[in-house]
Amino acid sequence: MKIIECPRDAMQGLAEFVPTEQKVKYLQTLLEVGFDSLDFGSFVSPKAIPQMRDTAQVLAQLDTTVSATKLLAIVANVRGAQQAAEQALIRYIGFPLSLSEEFQKRNTNKSIAEALTEVAQMQELCGQHNKELVLYLSMGFGNPYGEPWEPALAGEMTRQLDALGIRVISLSDTIGVSNPATIQDLFSTLITAFPHIEFGAHLHTSPSTWREKVAAAYESGCRRMDGALLGYGGCPMAKDELVGNMPTEKMLSYLQEKGVPLGLNQEALSRSLQQASHVFHSLLNRCHSR
């Protein structure tokens, strides 16, 4: 079972900048927990995501020798992928490819066809630099823009990515519209049709729906799941404040109930939860007081 912790996703929408040293302290504790991967930052335009403008500085200060956790960075174009590929400590490069033309333009300022062209270039870059490209299928569970959407779209896109040699694809519930039936349908169908591809779940959820969503993904064979401690975050480009990330600690509790061996450092996890509460509660409280 692979658990990917996503502090980058949790922080990116915060209006107030999290100081670099605070990011480093939080990420360092997360490294000690022993997650499979850590989505720690992004190489994107600072105008688009100001919170991530210090990703290179954060990376330079992390001590990765304390953990086997692999670092993952998100990019929005080939230029960002080149920056990430040049960083020896980064193992995964993530790119959001949408099933929605509208959201692809909002998120990366390009059409789906243009994005696919860049995916091919990114895949080549990853091969040259010994990285793994992770494709996030944004709007993987629904579309709020009135565009056609059906589960078959994910299969069609996966076939195109398979042809490019992509081996890790994460279905992303960008606006939190997934339900157990859709989750189960997508994962059971895709995992059966593409057994050589590792499918992940990047689910957004409300406090009342997290369990049914993680259960549907796990019972359908998904063994790669994203989460963020305390469930903070979401996609700032989607402008949706009703849902947050899958709370990692709740996802872990479900997996423990199922008897899944996780091998995590519980003491470091407890420290990380305390830091997450401090980082996010203090910033959000200051924002609300203005």
Annotate the secondary structure layout.
Layout: E1 2-5, H1 7-11, H2 20-33, E2 37-43, H3 55-61, E3 70-75, H4 78-85, E4 90-98, H5 101-108, H6 112-129, E5 132-138, H7 152-163, E6 168-172, H8 180-193, E7 198-202, E8 204-205, H9 210-219, E9 224-227, E10 244-245, H10 248-257, H11 266-288
Parallel strand pairs: 1-2, 1-9, 2-3, 3-4, 4-5, 5-6, 6-7
Antiparallel strand pairs: 8-10
Helix pairs in contact: 2-3, 2-11, 4-6, 8-9
Quick take:
With 290 residues, the chain is an alpha/beta fold. The protein has 11 helices and 10 strands.
Q: Would you mind describing this structure in some detail?
A:
There is one protein chain. By secondary structure, the protein is α/β, with parallel strands linked by helices. The chain has one domain (2-288): Aldolase class I (TIM Barrel, Alpha-Beta Barrel). It has 11 helices and 10 strands. Helix 4 (78-85) links the parallel strand 3 and strand 4 (90-98). The protein is globular and about 45 Å long. It starts with a strand and ends with a helix.
| Overall domain count | 1
Mean pLDDT over the residues:
92
Sheet of most strands: 8 strands, parallel
How many individual β-strands? Answer: 10
Q: In the CATH hierarchy, what is the class? A: Alpha Beta
What's the helix count?
11
Measured distance between first and last alpha carbons: 42 Å
Helix and strand content put the structural class at alpha/beta
- Backbone CA Rg: 18 Å
Classify the beta-strand content into a percent band. Answer: 15-25%
Helix content: 40-55%
**CATH superfamily, called what?**
Aldolase class I
Q: Describe the global form.
A: globular
- CATH architecture annotation name: Alpha-Beta Barrel
Widest beta sheet: strand line-up: 7-6-5-4-3-2-1-9
> Which fold name fills CATH's third level, the topology?
TIM Barrel
Stretches where pLDDT is under 50 for at least 5 consecutive residues are 235-242, 284-290
The helix/strand order is EHHEHEHEHHEHEHEEHEEHH
